[in-house]
Amino acid sequence: MAEKQVTIEVSDGAAIPRTGDRGLVSAWRLSFLIALALFLYLIVFRQEPYLRLLKLLPDGIIVTLEVTCASIGLSVVIGLFTGLGRLSRNRLVNLVASTYVEVVRGIPLLVQLFYLYYALARFVLLPDMAAAVIGMSVCYGAYMGEVFRAGIQSIDRGQTEAAMSLGLNRMQTMFSVILPQAWRTILPPVGNESIALLKDTSLVSILAVSDLLRRGREFAAESFLYFETYTLIAIVYLLITLILSKLVSLMEERLGQYERP
Amino acid sequence: MYRAISLMVLAMSLLTGNAWAKTIVFATDATWPPMEFVDENRRVVGFAVDYMEAAGREAGFTPVFKVVAWDGIFAGLAADKYDAICSSVSITEERRKAMDFSIPYFEVRQALVVNRDSSADGLEDLKGKRVGAQIATTGYFAVRKVDGIEPRSYDEIGLAIEDLYNGRIDGVVCDDPVAAQYALRNKKYRDSLKIGTIIESGDVEYYGIAIKKGDTETLNLVNEGIKAVKAKGLDKEILNKWIGR
Amino acid sequence: MNDHRPIIQIKSVCKYFGRLKALDNVSLDVAPGEKIVIVGPSGSGKSTLLRVINRLEVIDSGRIIVDDMDIYDNSSNIHEIRAEIGMVFQNFNLFRHKTALENLMLAPVKVRKTPRLEAEQKALQLMDKVGLRDKAQSYPAQLSGGQQQRVAIARALAMNPRIMLFDEPTSALDPEMIREVLDVMIGLARDGMTMIVVTHEMGFAREVADRMVFMDGGQILEIAHPRHFFEKPKHLRCQKFLEMIL
């Protein structure tokens, strides 16, 4: 009896809404509606102390989004090169890329951030935002690298052969033929990683970066209103990640167009 | 587990010569030398620890110290995770709404720590610069009150001092015994940092033991102990040992 | 026909896949404008022979000279050589993210640095030539197999190659689509293109081939004019093979 092959995919990112999902009730809609309703209820009807806390949050949200956007951009670039490095036939390049991935995956992000900010201060004094963005990108670059590697490998070898037979070199083949196609495979996991990254930016609050979480912690530690503070902070994070996951799913839909007859 | 703890408490009570001593569990974040911190042998030590032990001997309770992160320390008290907080808690009106306080056991002022070559005489001189303090401390409130300073809140005062030492910020405001510990005695920092000034905020601040609202039994015991320590002049000895003023 | 110097010279080529000998001391010269059809049972090394000619597979010994350039010599630019050799695959391998027209334009623009407008005009001409002018803006997924293969041929032609290699171009097609592809290939042969074709389409072979090559076990066992090849093949294995497929 043949054993059934089962693949379990687990991601720490929020679920990306399925592109084809046209049903009225989806997990995304339900979560979004609940979060939005709760948010409005707290702000409009309860007001105190939520309104007072909310006024402190915009700067924090901006910092969180700045760190997130810069880190996604940089980690995608690092991920691309790491992925290419991991597929390289050059032994040295391959070894460097693989070692980077191993090392980064073996060290907790929190420790990496502490290291960049406090430990490396002996040699180079990174400003807090730079330390935050570099820390997040170096860590997520390794994860993205694995995504890129898998995405590139998923493209049929025939595509490479066709491109090569036309005289394209490796770089041209990669950037004109393979990557544009791999994007469709790569985008959902990159989106997932980006959402996980956004959530993990809360860790940069330990670098005294005034992000969303730190704003909340300051408020809570002064007012002792832990329940109220973290309820609102959780809702705000949830709303942001839900919006981001929707954006990813819309992009996915666009990229998928050429496969439809 | 429960039995082991009971036995330990019993043994400790016997050692202090007070067979019926009540155990009071004090939460401390233990990052605030010389008041309370973790020494090389990983024990919680400091001025406040000695003070509460002396108070315990006088009033008949056994203090046990539990290390808890600062920014959840008040929530833990409300949730009955321990009996009291002994962690350089300044007595403020805001806090009095949420918890009870013992009589003060230490008078504290806010000190501004700066780099040795800095000419800042007070917070006013640091406008347009970044000044750090520990999250939700009196020092942080003092920094935030000054317009034009970019306040930065740290989880631990040690990290703020390290950032000052590295040059990412231009000053740190903290309680004066802590400032003295870092700027005058600490081997790593004493040659680079100095106490710029003692900030005169008008009213004097006191450290008290925070106790859950309504827990009069613990409150009375602690107050009794502190009174006795002051009456016997034991506090001078402890002050001398840890702070030297 | 043989008064020119050969455009392809394959000299004592051996190629191993692990321990399997895919090409066993293979030698073959192809003259400019010549049409060679290679037949043989599966696993005989036909496809491998095609693929070593533009170095999609690397040979283990021997030499291959295309247009006076040794393609395994480090000093020759393999990308330039490949641009002169068009290849058509069994599975078409059209770039799935590009329209038919874009498939044709990619290599001229990227490799030859042809201006886009010029490349587009040439691409449209070629789409016309393969009878698919109206499908220029279609993506591969919107085309039938036969149409895809015709686009793939046009794509190879867009580089103005001097040689065309066909690796079982009709094997993946439904029967009703084979004809349209063969017609394009026959047209190409009439235009004087040098062609090496691996195929099982014997009608096509009879009509087009200047020489037939029979391979088995990594070796070339017989090379003959199609009339002799189909009527009285010399080699026993060749006879058996032809009996089976005809």
**What percent of the residues of chain C sit in helical stretches (DSSP H or I)?**
25-40%
Report the order of strands and helices of chain A.
Answer: HHHHHHHHH
**In percent, how helical is the residue content of chain A?**
over 70%
- Sheet with the most strands, sense and barrel status of chain C: 6 strands, mixed
Output the strand order for the largest sheet of chain C.
6-7-8-3-9-10
Poorly predicted runs of 5 or more residues of chain A: none
Q: SSE order of chain C, as H and E?
A: EEEHEEHEHHHEHEHEEHH
CATH architecture of chain C: 3-Layer(aba) Sandwich
CATH architecture of chain A: Orthogonal Bundle
CATH superfamily of chain C: P-loop containing nucleotide triphosphate hydrolases
Name the largest protein-protein interface in this structure.
Answer: A-C, 21 and 27 residues
Task: Give short descriptive properties of this protein.
heterotrimer; A: 261 residues; mainly alpha; MetI-like fold; 0% strand; B: 245 residues; alpha/beta; D-Maltodextrin-Binding Protein, domain 2; 2 domains; 6-stranded mixed β-sheet; 5-stranded mixed β-sheet; 9 helices; 14 strands; 28% strand
3D structure, described in words:
Chain B: Residues 1-21 form the signal peptide. Chain B: Residues 23-245 form the Solute-binding protein family 3/N-terminal domain. The complex is a heterotrimer of chains A (261), B (245) and C (246). Chain A is mainly alpha-helical and 261 residues long. Chain A has a single domain, classed as MetI-like (MetI-like fold, Orthogonal Bundle), CATH 1.10.3720. Chain A has helices at residues 27-46, 50-87, 91-105, 109-119, 128-153, 157-165, 170-200, 212-223, 226-255. The two termini of chain A are 38 Å apart. In chain A, 40% of the residues are buried. Chain B folds into two domains: 2-107 and 207-242, 3-Layer(aba) Sandwich (D-Maltodextrin-Binding Protein, domain 2); 110-199, Periplasmic binding protein-like II (D-Maltodextrin-Binding Protein, domain 2, 3-Layer(aba) Sandwich). Chain B contains nine helices and 14 strands. Chain B is an alpha/beta fold. Chain B has helices at 2-15, 47-59, 73-78, 93-98, 138-145, 157-166, 176-185, 216-232, 234-242, and strands at 22-28, 31-32, 36-38, 44-45, 61-67, 84-90, 100-101, 106-108, 110-115, 130-134, 150-154, 171-175, 193-199, 205-211. The mean pLDDT of chain B is 86. In chain B, strand 10, helix 5 (138-145) and strand 11 form a beta-alpha-beta unit. In chain B, strands 1, 5, 6, 7, 8 and 14 form a six-stranded mixed β-sheet that branches. In chain B, strands 11-10-12-9-13 form a five-stranded mixed β-sheet, with helices on both faces. By secondary structure, chain C is of the alpha/beta class. Chain C has one domain (8-244): P-loop containing nucleotide triphosphate hydrolases (Rossmann fold, 3-Layer(aba) Sandwich), CATH 3.40.50. In chain C, 48% of the residues are buried. The mean pLDDT of chain C is 92. Chains in contact: A-B, A-C. The A-B interface holds A 118, 121, 125, 127-128, 206, 208, 210, 214, 217-218, 220-224, 226 and B 70-72, 74-75, 78, 94-95, 98, 132, 135-136, 140-141, 152-155, 159-160, 162-163, 166-168.
